[in-house]
C-alpha cells in the first residue's frame, strides 16, 4: 500500500477552507460524522445482521427441510449455496449503482426485495414446493447483494480515522453476532413450526429498513459521479496498481468465511447424529460457542487497530496462524466433541482478528467514488466462499472427517503464507 505523503501547505490550506465551507453548508465531513455516532453505528449494524440471519438462521432447520420436503441433503445445502452465489454475482452491480447514485438508494430497495422474498420462501415451504423455495432464495440473494457490502462502503463515507475502523469492526461484529444468534433463533422457531424462520426474516428487514431511512444521513457528494467509461477505466487502473495486496486480501477474506461456514455446517450435521443426538435450541447454543469468540474478537480488533498498518499486519498473521494451528490439531482431536468445539472456537477467534483488518484496509484504500465497487468485489468473493462451504464440506464428509480438517488447515496455511509475503501495509493505512 502506498505511503501517506505529506501534503503541501497550499493543499492543506485549501482542504481547511473546504472543511469550513462544508460546516457552513450543513454537510457532514467524515470527521464530523464520527461525533455522536451511537445511533448511526446501531443503524449500520442492523444491515449485516439482517444479511447473516438470511443464511445462518436456516442452518439448524436443514435436516427438518430434508424430512418435511422429501429432498436430499445436497438439495438442502443448495438453499444456502444458491442464495450466496446469487448475492455474490449481483454484489458488483450493486456496488456500481451505489457509486453512481447513492448508498441508501441501493440499500433501501434491496432490503424490501430481501424481506419480500423471505415471505415467498416461507410459502414455498408451506406448499412443499422446492422449486418455489429455491427460486425465492435466489431472489433473496439478489436483494442481499445491496445490503451489507454497501453498508461497509457507507461506513467508509461517514467516518474517518479510528472511528472508521471502529465502525467497520462493528459491522464485522454485527455479522458475527448474527451468526451467534441465528442458529439459536432458527432452532427455537423450528420448535413452533420448522418453516417459521422464513417468515421471521421480513420482520428483521423491516426494522433495518426503518433504521436506514430515519437514522442514517448519507454525506452529500462533493463531485458528480464519473461517467461509465471513466469509472471503468479508473477502477481497473486502481485494481491493477494495488493488485498484489488487494487481491490477496480478497482471497484471504473468502477463505476465512469458506472455512467458518463450512465447519459450522460440519458441526451442525455431526451434532444431530449418534452418539451426540443434540437437536433444537441446545444445538443452536453449541453452534453459537465458536461464533461468540469471533464476535468478541472482531469488535475488540476494530476498536484497537485504528489506522495502524503495522498492528493490522501482526493481527492478521496471528489470526491466520491461530486458524492454521487449531484446524491442524482438529485433524487428530475431532473425535472428541469438547476438543472439537474448543479448537473451532480458537479458529473463529483467528477469523475475528483477520476480518476487521481486511475491512479497514480495503475500505480505506480508495476514494469515495469507487469505494462501492472495491468493497463489493471483496464482499462478492466472501459470499462465494460462504456459498462453496456447505456443498464442498458435504462431499468431504462423505469421504472422511479427517479429509475435512486436512483441507481447511491447508487452506488456512495458504492464506497465512500469501498474507505474509504480499500484504504489507504502511505504518498508517491511508
Task: Detail the poorly predicted runs.
Answer: 1-29
Structural class: mainly alpha
Shape assignment = globular
Strand content: under 5%
The number of helical runs is: 17
Q: Largest beta sheet, briefly?
A: none
Distance between the termini: 8 Å
Record field, number of beta strands: 0
Mean pLDDT: 83
Order of helices and strands: HHHHHHHHHHHHHHHHH
CA-based gyration radius: 21 Å
Which bin fits the share of residues in helices? over 70%
What does this structure look like?
It is a single chain. The protein is an all-alpha fold and 430 residues long. The protein has 17 helices and no strands. It has helices at 9-24, 30-33, 38-56, 62-69, 73-100, 103-127, 130-144, 148-158, 161-192, 196-214, 228-241, 243-271, 280-305, 309-333, 337-363, 368-399, 401-422. Helix 3 (38-56) runs antiparallel to helix 10. The protein is globular, with a radius of gyration of 21 Å.
Features of the shown structure:
disordered N terminus; 430 residues; single chain; mainly alpha
Amino acid at each position: 500500500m502506498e505511503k501517506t505523503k505529506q501534503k503541501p501547505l497550499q493543499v492543506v490550506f485549501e482542504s481547511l477552507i473546504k472543511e469550513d465551507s462544508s460546516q457552513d453548508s450543513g454537510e457532514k465531513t467524515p470527521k464530523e460524522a464520527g461525533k455522536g455516532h451511537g445511533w448511526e453505528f446501531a443503524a449500520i449494524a442492523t444491515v449485516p445482521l439482517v444479511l447473516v440471519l438470511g443464511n445462518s438462521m436456516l442452518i439448524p432447520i436443514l435436516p427438518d427441510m430434508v424430512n418435511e420436503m422429501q429432498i436430499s441433503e445436497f438439495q438442502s445445502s443448495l438453499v444456502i449455496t444458491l442464495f450466496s452465489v446469487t448475492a455474490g454475482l449481483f454484489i458488483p452491480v450493486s456496488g456500481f449503482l451505489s457509486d453512481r447514485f447513492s448508498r441508501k438508494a441501493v440499500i433501501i430497495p434491496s432490503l424490501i426485495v430481501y424481506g419480500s422474498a423471505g415471505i415467498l420462501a416461507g410459502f414455498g415451504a408451506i406448499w412443499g414446493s422446492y422449486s418455489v423455495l429455491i427460486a425465492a432464495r435466489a431472489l433473496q440473494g439478489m436483494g442481499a447483494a445491496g445490503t451489507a457490502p454497501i453498508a461497509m462502503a457507507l461506513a467508509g463515507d461517514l467516518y474517518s480515522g479510528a472511528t472508521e475502523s471502529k465502525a467497520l469492526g462493528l459491522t464485522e461484529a454485527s455479522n458475527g453476532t448474527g451468526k451467534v444468534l441465528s442458529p439459536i433463533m432458527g432452532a427455537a422457531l423450528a420448535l413452533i413450526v420448522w418453516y417459521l424462520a422464513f417468515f421471521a426474516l421480513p420482520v428483521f428487514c423491516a426494522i433495518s429498513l426503518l433504521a436506514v431511512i430515519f437514522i442514517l444521513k448519507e454525506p452529500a457528494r462533493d463531485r458528480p459521479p464519473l461517467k461509465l467509461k471513466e469509472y471503468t477505466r479508473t477502477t481497473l487502473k486502481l485494481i491493477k496498481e494495488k493488485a498484489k495486496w488487494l487481491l490477496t486480501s480478497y482471497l484471504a477474506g473468502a477463505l476465512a468465511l469458506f472455512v467458518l461456514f463450512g465447519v459450522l455446517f460440519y458441526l451442525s450435521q455431526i451434532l444431530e447424529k449418534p452418539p451426540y443426538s443434540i437437536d433444537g435450541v441446545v444445538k443452536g447454543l453449541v453452534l453459537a460457542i465458536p461464533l461468540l469468540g469471533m464476535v468478541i474478537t472482531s469488535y475488540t480488533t476494530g476498536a484497537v487497530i485504528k489506522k495502524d498498518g503495522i498492528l493490522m499486519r501482526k493481527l492478521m498473521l496471528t489470526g491466520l496462524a491461530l486458524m492454521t494451528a487449531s484446524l491442524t490439531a482438529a485433524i487428530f482431536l475431532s473425535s472428541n466433541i469438547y476438543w472439537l468445539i474448543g479448537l473451532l472456537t480458537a479458529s473463529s477467534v483467528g477469523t475475528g482478528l483477520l476480518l476487521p483488518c481486511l475491512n479497514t484496509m480495503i475500505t480505506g484504500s480508495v476514494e469515495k467514488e469507487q469505494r462501492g465497487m472495491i468493497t463489493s468485489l471483496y464482499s462478492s468473493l466472501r459470499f462465494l466462499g460462504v456459498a462453496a462451504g456447505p456443498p464442498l464440506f458435504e462431499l468431504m464428509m462423505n469421504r472422511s472427517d479427517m479429509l475435512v480438517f486436512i483441507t481447511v488447515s491447508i487452506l488456512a496455511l495458504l492464506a497465512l503464507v500469501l498474507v505474509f509475503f504480499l500484504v504489507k501495509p504502511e505504518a498508517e493505512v491511508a
